[in-house]
Amino acid sequence: MILWVSFTYLTTLSPGIAYADGKFYPERAYKVAPAIPGQRAIIVYKNGIEKLIIESALDGEGREFGWIIPLPSKPTEFEKVSPGFIKTLSLTVQPKITHDLSMSLEVFNIIAASIGLWCLLVLATKPKRLHVTSLFLFGCLFIALSVLGPALNKAGERAGRLDYGEIPGVKIHDIQEIGSYELAVLEADNSRTLDTWLQSNGFAHLTEKDEAIISDYISNGWYFVAAKLRRETAGYSKPHPLAMTFPSDKAIYPIRLTATVGSEVYLELFVIADKQARCKGLALELSDQYHFLEKALSNPVSKKRSAGFIGKTHHQNIGHPITAKYMWDGCVLSKLCGTLKPGQMNEDIVLQLRTGKPYQKHYYSHRGAKEAGLLVCLVVWCILLLALTTIFYGEIKKENGKKFYLSRIIIPAVLLSLLLWALTYAALPKVQVHTRTYWRMRYEYERRALAKQREVAREYNYFKGVTLDGIVETIDGFFRYQVSRNTYTPERIKREDSPGNYTIFKDDRGVIFRTYFRGGVFGEFVLTTKSEDPRIKSDESNAIRAWSKLMKLADENSGDDVIEVLSGSVQHVYQKSTGNWIRVPTRLWLPHYRHNLILIRLYKEKPKKLVPIVLADLKNRLRNFPEHIKEIEYELSMLGCITRTIPPLDVTDKKKINEFIKEIEAWCNLN
Description:
alpha+beta, 671 residues, 9-stranded mixed β-sheet, globular, 18 helices, CATH 2.60.250
C-alpha cells in the first residue's frame, strides 16, 4: 500500500516528459500580456527632457485613425521609431518565471518512493534489523537531497490631410509627417474650440468626459498632439512606434483620456533614467543598472561578441542596433506593468525616480505553480510519513498495526499533502507564458533560419538582375505561405527588426538578410553574393533525389506517404498515449535543410499536379489527429507554397486546418 501511494505520486501527479530522437531540453517561459486592450511605451528621462515612445494597436475597418496626445509642454522633436526596439525590451526585460521543475520532481519522486519502501520495510522487518535498513535508506536520501538542492536553485471617417486653416481659439504650432503619421501640435483656449478643429480635420467628436479632462489640461498650459495614422488595409494593425521629445520637470505618462473609453487597459511601461522608477497602480517587474560594453553579447552566428548593454545584477542584456540612441552607460532600466481600471486612470502616471536596489519580480507559470505545489506536496508527504512512522512505531508493530497504519497515518498524510498542494498553487502569483526550448536549441533554429535564406538565394541564382523590392517580395512570400512561427512569440515570422523576425536592406555589400535573436543581437549574410554552406552542400544531393521521388509520386499517383518519400527512412517511436510503437519519418525532429530545399522549389515552381497527392495525405493524417503534428505542419507548408494560400499558424487547431483544406479544394476546382 505504501509503495502504491508513492508510485501514484510518481506516475499521476508528475508531469509527463516525452523523450524522442534526441535530448530533453527544459523550456524557457516568457510572460504573455492578458487578452485585453493594451498599451506599451518607453519613457527616456534625463536632465529635465522626456522622450515618450508610444506603440499603438488598431482594429477597425477604416484606413485612417486619429487620436489626441496631451503633453505638459511644447514638443521639440518627433521621430519614427523602429518597432523592434520596444519588442526587444518586452522580450528581454522579463520577470523571473518558474516554469519547468521536472528535474527536481524526478529527484523528489525517487525520494518519496524510497521513503515508501522504508515504511514497507518497517512493517516487514524485525525491530532489531530496522536501524540497519534505515541507515541505508537515509544515506540514499541525503545523497539525493545533495543533488536536489542545486537543481531547485536553478529551476526556475473623413479623408484628407490635416488643415493649416486657422480656427479661432486654436493655435497650430507645427504640422509634420513622420512615417505613417501626420502630426499637428496644437494649443487651445478651451475644449470647444479644440473640438471644432478636430472635427474639421476628420477626428471624432469629443465626449463630455473628454471635454472635462481636456479643459483641465488647458488650464494647466498643456499642449496637444493630434496624430492621424494612414494605413493601406483595414482590420487589425500595429504601426511603427512614434517618439516625441519635450521638456518636463518630472517623468510623466499621460493616460487620463484613456479612462473615458471605459475599459480596462494593460500597460507595459519601460523607463530609462538615472534612477529606479516606481509609480502607483503599476508593479515593478524588473529594475537594473546597465553598462555599455563593446563586446557585451555573444552572437550565435558569427561566434563573436557584439556591442550592447549589460544588466549589472540580473544580466538581461540588450544589443539591438539602436539601443545606444536611448540608453547610456550607467542608466537604470525599470519595467512597470499592470492592468488599470478606468477609475485608476483619473490621474496621469507620474513616475517617482529614486535610488533603489536592483529588483526582479518572481512569477510562476500555471505549470510551474502546479509543479511547485507538487514539490511541497511530496516534501510534506515524506516528512509526515517519516515522522508519524517513527512516533507510532509501537502501534504499527501490534496485531492490528496495518489497519492503524493505513487509517491513522497513510490516509491523513495523503489528504494533508494534497491540500497543501492545492493551497500552494492558489497562493503563488501566476501569469500566462509562451515557452521556448533551451537556448542551445533556440540558436540552432536561428542559424537554420539564416541557412534557409542562403538556400533561397542559391535557388534564385543569388537574385541576379532582381530589384530590392523583388527580393523582398520573394522572401516575404516564402515565409507567408508556410507555417513559419516566430520562436519567441506565438506569431508568424515577419519583416521586422525584433527577436525571431528579419529585415532586408541594401548597402555597399549588396542586399542583406538579417535575422534577430533575443536581446536584439543579429546575424546576417549577403543575399546577392554567392556563398557556400557545407550543411547545405552535404544535403543538396539528398534534396535532388527527394525532389525526383516527389515528382515521380505525383506522376504515378501511387498513394505512398509523402513524408516517407521525402525522408527515405522512418524510425519507430514509442507513443505514450496509446502504448504502441509508431512509424515516424526521421526528418521531422528538426527542420532539415533537405526539406527546406524542397519547400523552396515548391514555392518557385508551383507544381500543381502535386496538390491532390499532398492534400489526400493531409486528410489521412487528420484522421489520427493530433498524433502527427509535425507531418501535418510540413504538408500545410507544402500546400501553401504551391497554391499561394496562407496556412494556419496553429497546427493544433483542427477547425482552422479544415478551413484551409476547403480553400485548397476550391483552388483545385479553379485550377
